[in-house]
């Protein structure tokens, strides 16, 4: 009798097991990224830029009118945050803890931006790789300022808009809603950071004259419709403030030295990309990870996209990724670098979508490489999965390396603020003492109906005081630091609105700087000192006879 053939025992499915391990690693890395990004919110108190970003929506929530009472371009980011700030004030009954609240808003915003990236690339990559790529949005925080500002919102809206355009590329017919949302996002990006109009313009041209013009014109119409819908925001603000608010605002903006320097500045920016952010910077980054180095790292990664694309020129998704994300974002990076005094460092604001596109292109290029067997294919797949981790880890490290507004590192941020707008955040003993001293000595002297003017480069004063400002911008720069016409816009604001300050917080450094605004207050004879805080003197306006 013929003996039946006995099947050999199956070898362990190492390939399948390795893929399960890869899935577990991706999920663990994504969760760790989220938790570490959340933990970072509780450290570092900044009295300058971040305080300014929070003081803007707080000013409007207290009753001031955008465009009419505030003349800074940064106010539009504050307007978009205003509904949530009003909700916070209503629920909490005051501004205590508002800075930490807005930091959580920023984390939620970056998560939504990451969701748009995930939805766009999950079909081109395995979902694990798409998830890790999306997590990069959580850890890139321009200048390490965890707040909703023109930098973070401009960068985020541009990123979301570009990647939303890829969400329906495989649908037949393509859905119009991602393109409508893309238009909304790009319009809001321009609203909060006007130089990003360069990226939106290039994007619109790339779509309108795409490979299938008839189909793309329909999508372009949806994109335009979304942009027009978002444009209702500034139109509503203008209707509320009145057309008469525009000339004073234009005069205020014109009083500052322009940041652009023509074609010479553009050439300097282009040279700076290669001088300050070459691809070799990626290898050296771990030796000096910090918030500033992160800015250059983003530009360096974006430049790698141009090197990876030639290997994928025939890949349909890669072509759309280049046309609708990388090229418009690269143009946006030039615009944000040219328009900023930070130069090439500020290119990261417009170039962040290009950096994400580069990460995707590198992963696609690795997956397209020929593999001799399944094991080799697994090695390539694992290497591709590691690419976003190579970006996430140093950005996380840089986020914890320095804290904007704090001259120290994490181990010295030992004290938790117990009350006030910075409640819940850890800082140094010296800064905590300052906050507590202000609450004890100054706050009781400021009435809830008072309007206040705070000198200079100290927008946190408006948060700590908790009352409405009496100035044309809650960031009052030192006289002649960047304003060409000194304090003329502020004088005109007082004349037009009649809203002179009831209380003036005059910092010692401002009192000694020869500021024409200080001279005006002293010469009027209306203001008299009534409290010495050490770092500043409080002046109160005399009551009318």
Write a structural description.
This protein is mostly helical and 545 residues long. It has two domains: 15-44 and 97-239 and 264-401, no CATH class; 428-541. It contains 22 helices and seven strands. The chain has helices at residues 14-40, 49-61, 75-92, 98-121, 127-139, 150-164, 177-192, 197-208, 213-230, 232-241, 246-254, 262-276, 280-284, 291-308, 316-338, 347-368, 374-401, 429-441, 460-465, 488-497, 508-511, 516-524; strands at residues 415-416, 426-427, 451-454, 468-469, 503-507, 527-532, 536-541. A five-stranded mixed β-sheet has the order 4-3-5-7-6. Helix 6 (150-164) packs antiparallel against helix 7. The longest helix has 28 residues, at 374-401.
């Amino acid at each position: 009798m013929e003996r039946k053939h006995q099947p050999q025992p199956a070898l362990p499915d190492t390939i399948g097991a390795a893929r399960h391990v890869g899935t577990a690693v991706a999920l663990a890395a994504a969760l760790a990224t989220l938790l570490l990004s959340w933990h970072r919110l509780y450290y570092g108190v900044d009295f300058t830029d971040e305080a300014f970003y929070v003081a803007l929506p707080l000013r409007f929530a207290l009753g001031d009118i955008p465009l009419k009472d505030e003349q800074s371009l940064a106010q539009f980011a504050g307007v978009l945050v205003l509904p949530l700030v009003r909700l916070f004030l209503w629920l909490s009954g005051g501004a205590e803890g508002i800075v930490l609240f807005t930091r959580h808003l920023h984390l939620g915003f970056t998560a939504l931006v990451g969701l748009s990236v995930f939805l766009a690339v999950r079909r081109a990559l395995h979902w694990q790789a798409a998830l890790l790529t999306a997590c990069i949005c959580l850890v890139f925080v321009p200048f390490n300022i965890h707040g909703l500002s023109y930098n973070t919102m401009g960068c985020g809206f541009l990123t979301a808009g570009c990647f939303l355009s890829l969400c329906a590329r495989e649908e037949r017919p393509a859905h119009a809603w991602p393109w409508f949302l893309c238009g909304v996002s790009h319009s809001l990006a321009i609203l909060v950071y006007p130089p990003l109009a360069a990226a939106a313009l290039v994007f619109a041209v790339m779509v309108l004259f795409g490979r299938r013009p008839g189909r793309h014109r329909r999508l372009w119409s949806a994109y335009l419709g979304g942009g027009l819908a978002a444009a209702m925001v500034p139109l509503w603000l203008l209707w509320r403030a009145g057309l008469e608010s525009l000339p004073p605002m234009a005069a205020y903006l014109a009083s500052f030295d322009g940041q652009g320097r023509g074609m010479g500045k553009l050439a300097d920016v282009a040279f700076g990309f290669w001088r300050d952010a070459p691809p070799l910077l990626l290898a050296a980054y771990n030796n000096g990870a910090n918030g500033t180095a992160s800015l250059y790292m983003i530009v360096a990664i974006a430049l790698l996209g141009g090197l990876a694309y030639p290997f994928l020129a025939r890949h349909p998704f890669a072509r759309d990724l280049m046309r609708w994300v990388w090229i418009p974002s690269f143009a946006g990076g030039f615009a944000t670098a040219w328009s900023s005094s930070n130069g090439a460092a500020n290119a990261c604001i417009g170039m962040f979508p290009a950096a994400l596109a580069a990460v995707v292109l590198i992963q696609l290029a690795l997956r397209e490489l020929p593999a001799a067997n399944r094991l080799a294919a697994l090695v390539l797949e694992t290497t591709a999965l590691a690419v976003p981790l190579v970006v996430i880890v140093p950005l996380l490290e840089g986020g914890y390396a320095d804290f904007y507004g704090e001259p120290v590192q994490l181990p010295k941020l030992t004290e938790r603020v117990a009350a006030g707008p910075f409640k819940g955040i850890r800082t140094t003993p010296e800064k905590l003492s300052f906050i507590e001293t202000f609450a004890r000595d100054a706050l009781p002297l400021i009435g809830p109906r008072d309007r206040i003017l705070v000198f200079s480069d100290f927008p946190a004063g408006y948060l700590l005081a908790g009352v409405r400002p009496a100035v044309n911008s809650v960031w009052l720069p030192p006289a002649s630091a960047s304003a060409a016409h000194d304090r003329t816009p502020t004088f005109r604001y007082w004349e037009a609105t009649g809203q002179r300050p009831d209380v003036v917080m005059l910092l010692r450094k401002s009192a000694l700087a020869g500021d024409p605004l200080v001279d005006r207050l002293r010469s009027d004879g209306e203001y008299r000192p009534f409290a010495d805080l050490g770092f500043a003197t409080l002046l109160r306006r005399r009551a009318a006879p």
